[in-house]
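Minutes, project check-in
Item: structure for the 280-residue chain
Input as provided by the requester:
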Amino acid sequence: MTLTIVGIGLIGGSLGITLKENGFATRVIGVDAKPENLHKATRRRLIDAEMSLAEGVAVADVIILATPVDAMRKLLPEILDRVGDHQTVVDVGSTKELLLTELEGHPNRGRFVACHPMAGTEFSGPEAALPNLFAGKMCVIVDGDESAPDALDTARRLFKSAGMTLSRLDRQAHDLHCAYVSHISHIASFALALTVLEKEKDEQRIFDLASSGFGSTVRLAKSSADMWIPIFRQNRDNVLDVLDEHIEQLSRFRTQLIKRDFDGFYERIERANEISKILQ
């Protein structure tokens, strides 16, 4: 199995090293707009060779599109224009509705399987790639009924070989739920980091006093703007919906502090603790 990965960053690079080590792929080709990413990936042995997009698609059994989601809108139709009936194309993007809507009617739509492996870190680039990044995580297959059965089977085998469990959603449900459980977490982390940087001007004091709890809360604030701005752009309406609710919850905490309503504050914390029944 020859695997071509378009976009050798955290996710693409991690898939490259994982699928080569577990035997799913015998050869991994890298395609990237940044030559330095390809050089780093070659040095780290994430890929076996680097090629142009046309060359990489031509030799591949499976093509994984792992670029920022705005770039996917341009690249995916180009890739599907080139593939044959024996090839499978998979993406790993965090938003689906706009991408899939624009792809409707493409003659090779069946060769494409829309996937979202729910895994990652706050770091980016091929130097951040990890071989065990996907183990025990969930991969969502989106609108799987629109993919050819053999392509769908290949995508399932690929992510299962990486140690992932599989789930299925339609495009609207996927983007809505990702806004609730992923995208809002990043906005909250960005906002908290900006709040602390605005209020606490002494960087050494932040370093000295910040607990591990603070560190875990703002961890996502280290995430790449190049990756997240396209996600927020494409999932704007859903993110606005959940952001409005988040602001409302913060406002209620603020009101209770103003009124010294600590009994009510206590009740709200206990209600929030119920998340522990879901997240073990």
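Outcome recorded: The first strand starts at residue 2 and ends at 6.
No further action items on this chain.
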